[in-house]
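Write out the 3D structure for:
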Amino acid sequence: MKITMQSIHFDASERLEQFAQQKIGKLEQYFEEIIKADLVMRFEKPEAIESKIAEISLDLPGQTLFAKKQSKTFEESIDLACEALRKQLVKHKEKIKAK
C-alpha cells in the first residue's frame, strides 16, 4: 500500500509522519487489497481547542473509504480516523464474503 501525506499550513515532524505511517499501515491487517492511502492534516480555527484535523481516504478495488476526525492533537485525530476506517474495512470485507 502506498501512503501519501500532506500537511497544510505547517510542516509535519518526522515523528508525526512515522506515527501516521505505522497507524495507517496496520489497516492492512483488516483488508489486504488496499491500493493506497491519502492523509491530509490541517488546522481549523486555531483558537479552538480541538483544531487539528486528520482526513484519511483509502482506495480499494472499486471503492474509496473516507474518515475525517478532529481533536486536540494530530496523533489523536489520526488514531480516531484509523479506528473509523478499521470498522469500515471490517464491514466491507463482510459484504464481500456475503456475495
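The first strand starts at residue 2 and ends at 8.
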